[in-house]
Amino acid sequence: MTHTFDTVIVGAGIFGTTAAVELARRGQRIALLDPGPIPHPLAASTDISKVVRLEYGADLEYMVLMESARTEWLRWNEELGAELYHETGVVLVTRATMAPGEYEYESFELLIERGHRPERLDVDEIARRFPAWRPGAYSDGFYHAMGGYAESGRVVASLVDRARQLGVALYPGQTVDRVLGDETRVTGAATREGESFAAGQVLIAAGAWTPILVPELTSVMRVTGHPVFHLQPTASELFHPPHFAVFTADITRSGWYGFPMHPVGRTSRHAMRRGVDAERSYQAAGYSIDGVVKVANHGIGQELHPMRDERVVTEHDVANLRTFLRDALPSLADAPVTYTRRCLYCDTLDGDFLIDRHPDREGLFVASGGSGHGFKFAPILGQLAADVVLDQPNPHLAKFRWRDIPPDKTGKEGARYQG
Ligand SMILES: Cc1cc2nc3c(=O)[nH]c(=O)nc-3n(C[C@H](O)[C@H](O)[C@H](O)COP(=O)(O)OP(=O)(O)OC[C@H]3O[C@@H](n4cnc5c(N)ncnc54)[C@H](O)[C@@H]3O)c2cc1C
């Protein structure tokens, strides 16, 4: 059977759902396809939390974009009728004194330049304000009140509700395996399940699966897996804001970052009310996300194929986590690890997203390449994608254009640990 739309969106992660909402708002007939239930439990976006921060080292454009996104996050809290963005503040600590050229120093300086008010920390202030940290482990850094985390799986679920209200046709259980048309023009998409979708425009927003659907991108994208851990703290009073905030711990040298205790009572009430399969899947498997402290590593990761390779967190990963915790957050060092996940980044070789039209095939578009830092931009991603699809000018699209990237390029996202 053939269904007809203006635009078919392939993938219902954060890039796809925000694009669907925005394009539907602008009057388009949209189909949103995903192999899984939506949100898909394997999507990078489907998680309990993602960091929202303005700090991007010396990269002014990301900070400017995040200033807008953060304002929108606050508006979304009102509009979506639930606090899905928690402004707990962010703490960026360093072992040695922050120095020019480094992520934390450059972020701090740029924040000041732009009129923000980060609060410089020293060894005593860290101990006084954030008692979970081992005294003396970190000697410098800053706290910035404008930042925190978003409950990402719930955000996607809410956007899906909104998309439905705006008339977007949702097709869970549909795995696109072919973009239809010829080498110069697309005419739709066909799925492994035997459905065809006719459309003048196809937007590929398939996260780590993007280079499989658009093989021309395999030279500029790679898929890497990164460990995520949930811990159940015993000294839980230490992990609540304001005594604990979203943190990065000398992140460009270690990759470690984490979150305050996850709110209690989210799983069951929310999963039942809104049908969040990913949250239900935690429950079904006997995990609770109530009160967990999530810690993860924003590093090199492990190159993986999204369909062929198993996604496992190894004993070695857990041992690295324990080493970090013993040194930095000792009361968590022996806390039970209640859940682990190896989550896939769709990395571009330079670390910037890719939101653009295909250079040769008319009607084909890509919104992907989140590179381990895309979620925080959720409130502005839809506008970027919709402007590309509708050929509207947007000054920020130049950064995310379709581009050749030399194979030896190192990603330049400020916070990433490069090994
Ligand atoms: C461990 C981890 C931690 C992260 N932490 C942060 C953070 O703290 N802050 C931050 O800002 N960002 C963070 N990110 C990055 C952020 O999660 C991603 O940039 C963003 O979620 C990517 O969204 P997406 O829509 O591109 O991909 P996904 O969310 O992966 O969505 C892609 C969708 O495409 C679907 N799909 C796949 N193949 C097909 C097909 N053939 N047909 C149809 N649909 C298909 C998939 O099922 C999936 O639902 C993190 C990522 C990971 C993995």
Assembly type of the chains comes to single chain
Q: Specify the overall morphology.
A: globular
- CATH topology type: FAD/NAD(P)-binding domain
Mean pLDDT: 94
| Main sheet overview | 9 strands, mixed
Domains (count): 1
What is the helix content? Answer: 25-40%
Number of strands: 20
Counting H and I runs of at least 4 residues, what is the number of helices?
A: 11
User: Low-confidence parts, pLDDT < 50 over ≥5 residues?
Assistant: 268-275
Question: What ligands can be seen in this structure?
Answer: flavin-adenine dinucleotide
Summarize the structure.
With 419 residues, the protein is of the alpha+beta class.
3D architecture notes:
By secondary structure, the chain is α+β, with helices and mostly antiparallel strands. The chain has a single domain (2-400), classed as FAD/NAD(P)-binding domain. 27% of the residues lie in helices and 26% in strands. The chain contains eleven helices and 20 strands. The protein has helices at residues 14-25, 60-79, 103-113, 123-129, 152-165, 210-213, 251-254, 266-274, 277-284, 315-328, 378-389; strands spanning 2-10, 30-34, 50-52, 85-86, 90-94, 119-122, 140-144, 148-150, 169-172, 176-181, 186-191, 196-204, 221-231, 246-249, 256-258, 293-297, 302-303, 337-348, 354-357, 364-368. Strands 5, 6, 7, 13, 14, 15, 16, 17 and 18 form a nine-stranded mixed β-sheet that branches. Helix 1 (14-25) runs parallel beside helix 5, helix 1 packs across helix 11 and helix 8 (266-274) packs across helix 9. The longest helix is centred in the first third of the chain and has 20 residues, at 60-79. It is globular, with a radius of gyration of 21 Å. It binds flavin-adenine dinucleotide. Flavin-adenine dinucleotide is lined by residues 10-16, 33-36, 40, 43-45, 50-51, 175-176, 205-209, 213, 226, 228, 296, 343-346, 368, 370, 372-376.
